[in-house]
């Protein structure tokens, strides 16, 4: 669905700002708390928080993160889910969000309604209150910028740092080919992230947004390099399908495509990995975790593995 | 200064995303806490907060909130100050912020450096930590979206609701003509807002961003209308200067221009207003507060006053 209206009467400019904000509150429905705890005052008021808090921000921009082929409700859900994936990556629980819109006045009111309803449904599913926002004009532009708050679910939050040389590298799910639909159909790994943050043998974690080849650098401890066993990498069916079109190896897509929104995490070198696998399977019988390699000292790669570093993920601003 | 570079080598596309984010951390300097309390992990980690918290979001967009005539450092400061003004309007204290950028790859690195350094200087002045952000590509677009957190400074936060018929209407400072420079030179009324929130005779408050004529509706209690005494409205010298260009009355500019970032608040009908004026003057000898009218029952306007409602402030998306 195209986000721009053919007729002015169907566009947000016909509605005007005041009525648009009223409409947005209606579309958000029960995930929009009453003022001053939601939209309607200079700021939104949030309750005190006795736990460590987390905050992250990610946008969706027309032409970058979605196009006419993505249903508007899925765009709204994707906006929230991208941010939820960042909270999942630290093992935290979401609480509230604000959304700043920058839109061309020709944007169709109906498109925006479906966008907000899709976001509201995702917010309801994950217990997120949409407490505020802003609407500004952006000529020939359509973007929404969400800032998400959360709180630590247990005694620790999992950082990107913490892995040591020799630790194992694991991923959830399967990787690659997200452009074929996974980039908006994915489910953020919130329960999985919280579960992993509660396991002491997990040393560090992040989500895969720009592609494992690029993102894994942030998890790599000083004095080591990520040694990946190619046959172990869980290549998604979408990566294989995509590879038939591009002529590149499916493995390349699994490592470089980005927008997987899976978790990558390190497991302590001496951990009981069989026990971890059994416990995981009991907790999440429908989602696999896969050991794809380890952080090896440079020049001492295990036989059959390759040093990730020659490949690149998605580079922005290029 | 134009935000777009003449040569590709001077643009952010020459820098690339990874180096740009490193550069941003450098430009922010000491207002950028180390990871995970700042930029560098999936989320930023914030301390627990025993007080009620506040959150607000406002952007600056090229062509809407600034143009080539505004120094880039002032654009960065304005982005933060717009949000600080929302916190001031509730009598709260700022703590931390995140900033999402959407930029054309042709944006000049030097422009962006001055923008971030200006924001950092304002953040330092007001004790705000810039804890996170995002950089996304927006073709032919330049906008920055800031979300600001704060906490209640005292036992209450001042809402927009709370005024009663008969209450007095006050404003800080002078109004109008912000386009001549005040829209980026203003100082958010943080100390003043906290002081007012501590005075029990103040019943409600907001900041003036779209013009008093429009904003005051949100402060008006049901069954009343804002009766303004024209001669009492503090018209700024800029409103008078602007009026000479536009041919409109200076009072019109004072009531309708917007971007005043002054506070408008209601004072209880039976308050000791002389005592309030004395206490204010002791606390803020260099800034005036002015009573401009009261919330009158409709049809019972005090002699010489007019009902605000026939005039309009700045309407977005038109």
What would you note in describing this structure?
The structure is a homodimer of 318-residue chains. Chain A is of the alpha+beta class and 318 residues long. Chain A folds into two domains: 8-152, PurM-like, N-terminal domain (60s Ribosomal Protein L30, Chain: A); 168-307, PurM-like C-terminal domain (Phosphoribosyl-aminoimidazole Synthetase, Chain A, domain 2). Chain A is 30% helix and 23% strand. Chain A has ten helices and eleven strands. In chain A, the strands form two sheets. In chain A, strands 7-9-6-10-8-11 form a six-stranded antiparallel sheet. Chain A is globular and about 65 Å long. The two termini of chain A are 27 Å apart. The interface between A and B is large, with 71 and 71 residues.
